[in-house]
Design goal:
This is Cytochrome P450. The structure is a single chain. α4 packs across α5. This protein has a domain of about 55 residues. It has about 130 residues and is mainly alpha-helical. The chain has six helices and two strands, in the order ββαααααα. It has a two-stranded antiparallel ribbon. About 55% of the residues lie in helices and about 5% in strands. The longest helix has 21 residues.
Length: about 130
């Protein structure tokens, strides 16, 4: 069976539609490089630099190992009620107000990220 690859002229990208082909592409980080970005616009790719999604090889494996245990089906099920409550909060007051409330609680989002990373690393989840 031939690979189903189509050119999307408006987006100026190729798209792969078959699951097996998509899986093969995702597993071949030597041919298909994510570190240069995976989004359809330069700004999103620039903002995504250094993330798990926009990384390859050993760098990707290291970043993924820090997050993987938090994304198992069991771990995600444990978060369901908290996520649903946040969704209700956003619907009640709107997303902008919810973000403002969160920012008032924490003035430094970068510090929050650093604290979360250090907790994960301190537990040996590197």
């Amino acid at each position: 069976m031939a690979t189903c690859v189509v050119w999307l002229p408006h987006q100026q990208v190729f798209a792969i539609s078959r699951h097996a082909d998509c899986a093969a592409v995702l597993l071949d980080d030597e041919t298909f490089i994510s570190g240069d970005g995976v989004a359809l616009n330069p700004r999103a790719n620039r903002l995504g630099r250094g993330t798990t999604l926009n990384s390859d090889g050993d760098e990707h494996a290291t970043k993924r190992s820090v997050l993987a245990h938090r994304l198992t089906p069991k771990a995600v099920r444990k978060m369901t009620s908290a996520v649903e409550e946040k969704g209700r909060e956003h619907r009640r007051c709107g997303p902008e107000q919810a973000v403002r409330r969160r920012c008032r609680r924490s003035r430094d989002g970068a510090a929050d990220v650093d604290r979360a990373r250090s907790r994960g690393l301190a537990r040996g989840r590197t």
